């Protein structure tokens, strides 16, 4: 699935800025070009669309008023660029690049002779990632994001596409394989059964009730943020290790998610209390935080970096004007911060931010509109042309990226993503492109593995490196962040600034790790790098793994139990709780009962408590009292649930208790048949039995029901009540059958039992109804069409 393409390389020179303290100008009304307010509220919250969608979007946009802006300071950027044309699939004509990771791997979409496909560009090779559906030659797929582990998310058709382009799409996740054992992923497409479907592309499904899902972004922890729709509302959900967490229904007016960072913060747009769509940031601790919109009623957040800085848009409802903003938290990954405006271009073009790097560089797309008017003899007719350009904001000041490509005629339409090294991807008139800065030092941080120890502090030593020595001082700030490990109990939080003197290429940051004797999974935390000077961050997140070195604890399981309820008093349902191996310390576990079909109080007696296994013990029992009665009823169930174990782990923590009803069952002994005869009446008998004799009277009603045989002409209808005296177990029902001389097919009716007395129950296995068969014994040569003696005319 991999195809080499030719790399077109161009150079772009940008002079150094005399100062990074450039003045930021606040634009009160910057035109923001959307199809309509409705489209803003209901559009997919992703950082990219296909080039076809972009063209359709351009055809539907309308004009808006422009704002007179005062002149800005001279604009300049910090690096040189190499421009690489990414190319497309064989037989295709266009591509779009949507995301780039720290290793420079790029994902996006490309045309193929079959359809649009999700693709990966890896070291000059374009890889067709395929689709989820078996008829893969016709389906579409799109890749939206890639993390630093090489995991890719997006969406794919799951069957042939009909009218709605996304209604049959499912979010997918691709986790690459390491085929050569060098600890570096190198395979993203595998098709062992040759069915055309990528075996590595995992279908993430859809939220409950939704008709489609779109994978939007993935962080370096492997958490995926996605959106789904059920034709009435939008839903944002988080996928983490196979578990879906719904972040909330957005509502019929639209909403969605745009990005997720390594801290698990999700940004996008959602309705506020008065029904306006506002940009939000969500995390598992604080829930959803409304970021505001500079007093504009509508808006959305489009991207977030590792420290929690957010970019997005504020939008008015009447003039479709608004503002491009940067929201900065007052502390890394916080939920309280300040919003500042990003400048428009000098010509007043609006800007849509698409991504923000850890260094604070923002990339996106500007829209320049030119309106033409003429008199066609019936009045003035106006139309507009649209010009899209890739832009970058640095310190709030915008510049057009294609203007930095000196001496080349190139049109860069959109910039969609930027990585920690400052590499930028997007698409232009020739398809997907990659911009790589060449004159900056690159900062990275190592990962660390450390055994936690049993007591006292240990140390995880992170190494922060420059790719080459610099002739200027280089600084970068760092701060720890929780993963599965928690600051305070598992490690000691740390933050500060590292300085590389000219000529230095390596610095270390120690983090204190707390030891304990508790068995627990390996835990992780992070050191995030931000705010570099005189360098770019290429790998800004170091993961510290605290490796558990305590013995694996024994496991706890609870058995099921079954007991006959009895007629009076109580009986015990006994559950056994087992420890897989003896422990040197006491093991405790809490238990409690819970209803299923049985009800505490009437069917059984609720119970709870704590079991304690002394050192060396491996088995304990829990006795639950079951109440006896004389009621005929189906079998019922309750549960015993284990939780809160110490010095052990609960593996099977739910025991099912079955209360077996022992009241007699009423049933037909068998079906019955009879030959009708030519005249008169014969009788068909059914035996009704009781499964066990009782010391009290049992009653049950019965009645015949027509099927193909008709009461009155084929048999005599009958109903009544059977009474089983104490000790009796069998009763008989006799039904009169009418003979005739008519040659006809076999006919059927049935007898149904109902309304048993309270001390018995009709057999639940289906023997509460008996079928009767009247077999024909006539031929075409038999005379007449009437009934014999005792019969009735048909």
Can you give the helix content as a percent range? under 10%
Unreliable runs = 1-78, 784-794
Q: How much is the radius of gyration in Å? A: 37 Å
Sum up the overall morphology in one term.
extended
Strand content: over 45%
Count helical runs: 2
Structural class: mainly beta
Largest sheet: 5 strands, antiparallel
Q: What's the average pLDDT?
A: 80
N-C termini distance: 76 Å
User: Largest beta sheet: what is the strand line-up?
Assistant: 1-8-7-6-5
Number of strands: 58
Keywords:
single chain, 794 residues, mainly beta, five-stranded antiparallel β-sheet, 2% helix, extended, disordered N terminus, disordered C terminus
Provide a compact summary of the structure.
This protein is mostly beta strands. A hairpin with a 5-residue loop joins β13 and β14.
Q: What does the model show?
A:
With 794 residues, the chain is an all-beta fold. Helix content is 2%, strand content 49%. The protein contains 2 helices and 58 strands. A 5-stranded antiparallel β-sheet has the order 1-8-7-6-5, with no helix packed on it. The chain has a 5-stranded antiparallel β-sheet with strand order 2-4-31-30-29, with no helix packed on it. Strands 3, 21, 22, 23 and 24 form a 5-stranded antiparallel β-sheet that branches. The protein is extended. 41% of the residues are buried.
């Amino acid at each position: 699935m991999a195809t080499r393409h030719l790399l077109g390389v161009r150079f772009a020179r940008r002079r150094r800025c005399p100062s990074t303290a450039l003045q930021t100008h606040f634009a009160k009304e910057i035109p923001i070009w959307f199809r309509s307010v409705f489209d803003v509220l209901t559009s997919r919250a992703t950082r990219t669309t296909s080039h076809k969608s972009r063209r359709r979007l351009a055809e539907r946009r309308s004009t808006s008023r422009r704002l007179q802006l005062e002149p800005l300071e001279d604009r300049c950027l910090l690096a040189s660029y190499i421009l690489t044309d990414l190319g497309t699939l064989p037989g295709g004509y266009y591509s779009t690049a949507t995301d780039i990771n720290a290793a420079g791997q790029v994902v996006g979409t490309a045309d193929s002779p079959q359809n649009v496909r999700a693709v990966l560009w890896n070291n000059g090779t374009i890889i067709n990632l395929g689709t989820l559906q078996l008829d893969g030659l016709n389906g579409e797929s799109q890749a939206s994001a890639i993390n630093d582990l090489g995991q890719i998310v997006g969406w794919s058709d799951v069957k042939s596409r009909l009218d709605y382009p996304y209604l049959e799409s499912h979010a997918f996740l691709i986790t690459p394989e390491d085929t050569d054992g060098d600890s570096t992923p190198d395979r993203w497409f595998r098709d062992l059964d040759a069915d055309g479907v990528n075996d590595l592309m995992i279908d993430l499904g859809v939220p409950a009730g939704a008709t489609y899902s779109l994978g939007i972004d993935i962080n370096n922890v492997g958490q995926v943020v996605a959106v789904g729709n059920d034709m009435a509302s939008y839903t944002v959900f988080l996928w983490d290790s196979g578990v879906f967490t719904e972040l909330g229904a957005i509502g019929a007016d639209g909403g969605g998610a745009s990005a997720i960072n390594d801290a698990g913060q999700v940004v996008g747009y959602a309705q506020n209390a008065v029904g306006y769509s506002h940009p939000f940031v969500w995390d598992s601790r604080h829930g959803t935080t409304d970021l505001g919109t500079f007093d504009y009623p509508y808006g959305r957040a489009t991207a977030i970096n590792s420290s929690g800085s957010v970019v997005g848009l504020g939008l008015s409802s009447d003039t479709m004007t608004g503002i491009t903003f940067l929201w900065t938290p007052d502390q890394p990954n916080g939920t309280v911060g300040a919003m500042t405006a990003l400048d428009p271009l000098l010509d007043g073009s609006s800007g849509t931010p698409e991504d923000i790097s850890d260094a604070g560089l923002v990339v996106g797309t500007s829209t320049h509109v030119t309106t033409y008017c003429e008199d066609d003899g019936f009045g003035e007719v106006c139309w507009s042309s649209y010009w899209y350009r890739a832009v970058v904001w640095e310190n709030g000041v915008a510049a057009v990226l294609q203007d930095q490509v000196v001496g080349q005629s190139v049109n860069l339409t959109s910039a969609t993503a930027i990585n920690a090294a400052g590499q930028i991807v997007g698409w232009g008139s020739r398809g997907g492109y990659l911009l790589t800065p060449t004159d900056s030092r690159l900062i990275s941080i190592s990962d660390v593995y450390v055994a936690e120890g049993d007591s006292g502090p240990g140390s995880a030593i992170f190494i922060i490196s420059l790719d080459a020595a610099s002739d200027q001082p280089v600084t970068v700030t760092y701060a720890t962040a929780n993963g599965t490990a928690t600051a305070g109990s598992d490690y000691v939080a740390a933050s500060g600034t590292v300085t590389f003197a000219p000529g230095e290429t390596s610095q270390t940051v120690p983090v204190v790790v707390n030891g304990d004797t508790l068995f627990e999974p390996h835990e992780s935390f992070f050191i995030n790098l931000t705010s570099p000077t005189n360098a770019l961050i290429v790998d800004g997140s170091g993961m510290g793994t605290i490796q558990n070195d305590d013995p694996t604890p024994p496991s706890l399981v609870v058995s099921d139990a079954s007991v006959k309820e009895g007629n009076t008093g109580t009986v015990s349902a006994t559950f056994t709780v087992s420890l897989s191996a003896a422990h040197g310390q006491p093991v405790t576990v809490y238990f409690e009962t819970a209803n299923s079909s049985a009800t505490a109080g009437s069917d059984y007696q609720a119970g709870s408590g704590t079991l304690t296994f002394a050192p060396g013990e491996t088995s304990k029992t829990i006795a639950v009292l079951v109440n006896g009665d004389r009621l005929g009823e189906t079998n019922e169930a309750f549960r015993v649930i284990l939780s809160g174990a110490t010095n052990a782990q609960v593996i099977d923590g739910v025991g099912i208790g079955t209360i077996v009803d022992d009241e007699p069952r009423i049933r037909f002994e068998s079906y019955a048949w009879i030959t009708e005869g030519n005249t008169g009446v014969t009788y068909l008998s059914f035996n009704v039995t009781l499964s066990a004799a009782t010391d009290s009277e049992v009653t049950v009603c019965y009645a015949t029901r027509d099927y193909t045989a008709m009461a009155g002409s084929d048999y005599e209808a009958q109903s009544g009540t059977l009474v089983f005296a104490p000790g009796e177990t069998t009763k008989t029902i006799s039904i009169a059958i009418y003979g005739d001389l008519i040659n006809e097919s076999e006919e059927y009716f049935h007898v149904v039992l109902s309304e048993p007395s309270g001390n018995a129950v009709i057999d639940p296995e289906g023997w509460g109804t008996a079928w009767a068969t009247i077999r024909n014994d006539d031929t075409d040569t038999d005379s007449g069409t009437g009934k014999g003696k005792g019969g009735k005319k048909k």
